[in-house]
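Q: Structure tokens for this one, please.
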Amino acid sequence: MKLESVVSLFALSFIVSAVPTPLESRALPLVQSNLLRRVLLRSNLLAKSRILEGFAYATPERNRVFGSPGHNATVNYLYDQIAALGDYYDVKLQPFVELYTAGNASLKVGGVDQEAALFTYSPSGKFTQPLVSVANFGCEAADYPATTTGKIALISRGTCEFGLKSALAGAAGAVAAVIYDNIDQPSLAGTLGATTRPEGPLIPTAGITLAKGTALKNQLSGNAALTGDIHVISVRENRTTNNVIAQTKGGDPNNVLVLTAHTDSVDAGPGINDNGSGTVGILEVAIQLAKYSVNNAIRFVWVSAEEFGLLGSEFYVASLSDAEKAKIRLNLNFDMIASPNYKYGIYDGDGDTFNVTGAPGSAEAEKLFQDYFTNDAGLKWAPTEFNGRSDYAAFQDAGIPAGGLFTGAESLKTPEEVALFGGKANVSYDVNYHQPGDNVANLNMDAFIQNDKAIAHAVATYGRSFDSLPPRTPAKMVRREGGKAGGKPRNGHHGHLDKFFLTE
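A: Here is the predicted structure, written as tokens:
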């Protein structure tokens, strides 16, 4: 379906939804986990991933960033795939408008290129000024020395959001900010989260690697005088984009399982693991589910503009009335489920490892996946943190229980994880995270198919019954006082909302 035909198709959807479900649909066999898993094929996951890659590579930008031709083609494809299933789903597009920014950043110090990257929502600016080192992580006004005025602030990543660092630097009088990474990866880019902050004016902001930032900091600590040439070019425009929402016509509409995956990439590349894998993964389950009936309604929500701050999921949840939110028994989110140096990560719903507990039902969702990987798939798993860096966050903030799977992003795989999952220690779970190389060749198909079967198991289980979940009671996630002894240390996880982009 093409976006320009949204209005007419919305009208048609209301007509179609008023027609009773035919006997053939009602007579479908009740979904079973083993049967639904059995029809999931690597070849289908790979073929659909190649289609998304093709959408990106058919454009000069070679990406699927929200509102771009590559992303619009992705949205159309998802709609058309679901619509082709006939009357099994009610499917619609949910349009919304968000601010898109793009551009580039450069930084030279003493004539040496620091290979800087742009932070989304950074203002433009060009300055040649001395560098000043900021104490700690630049999350408090007191971290900025009195000599910051008129200079370029050098700040470590960690503890607080990027936008706060930029605003505090601006409040201290800096003309620009350079944030350096706290883990070893090829580049550091992120988002300032908004165009304004109450703590101070956002200033031109660029990111550099841990190695380059540490070298500069050490020179400044040795009382060296360093002059930086920073140039940030930022283009901003409003773009219309769409979430895709498909719900089974069968099943109890007052007891709904919502699955989410974001459909957009970053500017740098096609985003086939991040998050073509989640997009395709839940699409393939949705297609195969149409062969079965369900007792509870299943809703698939492909959300847009995640890479610019979880915008699509926030818009979607905000559009729901309290009564509609109360119908959602659980959200399961799938973002990066085929990382090349993967782990089988299950979100820590009970908070016993990372001290953040989801709303009632989150712990039970975690256990369902734990039991599946242990007893059905015969695979090891590891807890992964609810740190707000993907689209489950909007549901959690609304008091809706959440869970999901994740195979890792930019952080380094530990030797202990290698013992569990294989792969390479001290190498990122996804070395092509937010890079041009995040294409089909970047996918680990073993992780992809295993995670997709786990998704199918969850859909079949909850499609039959929510008896394993507690009664739905709105409650926001809470931070526990202490975790389980011997719990795993924090590892980096996926996401882009600067509010939660912490030191990891």
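A few notes: The first strand starts at residue 89 and ends at 109. Residues 298 and 459 are 8 Å apart (CA to CA).
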